Amino acid sequence: MSGFAIAKRIFIQMFRDKRTLALMWFAPLMIFTLMYFLFTSSGADATYKVGVYNLNPEIVENLEDNHIEAIVFSSEEQAEESIKNNHLVAFIAEKDAGHIDVTYENSAPAKSAVVRAKLQGAVIKMQMGALMSLGQEAVAANPNLAQAVPQQPTINEQYLYGEADSDYFTTISPVLLGFFVFFLVFLISGMALLRERTTGTLDKLLAAPVRRWEIIAGYLLGYGFFALIQTLLLVEFVVHVLHVTVAGSLVLVMGVTFLSALLALSFGVLLSTFAASEFQMVQFIPVVIIPQIFFSGIIEVGGLADWLQFLAKFMPLYYIGNALQSVMIKGGTLGDIGNDLLAIVLFISFFTVLNVLGLKRYRKI
């Protein structure tokens, strides 16, 4: 009953603190919306401007068909100046047949990579067209060659996960979902318990006939309710407003996200015991939160060095991101993410036990 009393006090306290509720419930929606537009407003339809000199007209036409704006120059001299003055991504010059020089601006290597790939594609397309013309001429001269000339194959594309128009935001949205919930609950819960300590409220609770586990249970129950509301709002917003595709169960997504909030809650309460002020609590973020971002799925963990993959196993966000990606992108079931859920529950249990033990240092009597 004491735990419920503590939770009730937290309910009243949180509902009076409108700014904290706004930070916890509505800030993630705003950030998610901003990132949605940032990641989806540019992509396959982006146009890149390049300069060309003496380039085969067929190659130029193929480039322009693939969102490349080609500006024709009368000379290849001072290519670097032409790139700077005209804000070009690259300058392409064909000195003689079969020899093309390309100078890339390369302040944004991703743009250079796109132009490089589209230039190679345009050259291959021109060569394939020339080969097809030769084949047709040979068949016209000797109809018996019709069976020997290879026909252009028809390519049927299928995708195991996602759609043909899936973008980068679709890939990282599960990671962002888990991270925002984890980070904001961690920050708010840690700050809240720190305020309880600095104002003397925690000392009064510890002086009362209340067991330490009841105090921790009250905090988890109280802030867990607001974490649940945050989970429901954010998941519903991402799915029904931003229209992020969820291949698996929406209920399972909410369950994983809520567990990530409970994990952040127990973790934030634990770290708050080592901070003497709000500033010190914020100082934990670069040490314990930011490193986890790189292991949450934004970077493919399977492609990292072995020791980094081993290190990832100790990062809570690794399991959260992996579980959400499995459900939202791959349509994973409860059995598919069972190991990730077990790891998350073990982390919650471990931090909760440490929280109960850690209250000993504050009990005066």
The largest sheet has its strands arranged as 2-1-3-4
| Mean pLDDT across all amino acids | 81
**Domain count:** 2
Q: N-to-C SSE series?
A: HHHEHEHEEHHHHHHHHHH
- So what's the overall shape? elongated
Beginning-to-end CA distance, first to last residue: 22 Å
* Major sheet characteristics: 4 strands, mixed
Q: Rg from C-alpha positions?
A: 29 Å
Percentage of residues in DSSP E strands: 5-15%
Give the strand tally.
4
Helical residues, percent: 55-70%
Which structural class do the helices and strands define? alpha/beta
Low-confidence stretches: none
Determine the number of helices (DSSP H or I, runs of at least 4 residues).
15
Q: How would you characterize this protein structure?
A:
The chain is of the alpha/beta class and 365 residues long. The chain folds into 2 domains: 2-40 and 168-362, no CATH class; 48-147, 3-Layer(aba) Sandwich (D-Maltodextrin-Binding Protein, domain 2). The protein has 15 helices and 4 strands. A 4-stranded mixed sheet has the order 2-1-3-4. α4 (57-64) links the parallel β1 (48-53) and β2 (68-72). The longest helix is centred in the middle third of the chain and has 33 residues, at 109-141. The mean pLDDT is 81.
Helix and strand topology:
Elements: H1 2-16, H2 18-25, H3 27-40, E1 48-53, H4 57-64, E2 68-72, H5 79-86, E3 90-96, E4 99-104, H6 109-141, H7 168-198, H8 201-207, H9 212-240, H10 250-272, H11 278-283, H12 285-293, H13 306-312, H14 316-328, H15 338-358
Parallel strand pairs: 1-2, 1-3
Antiparallel strand pairs: 3-4
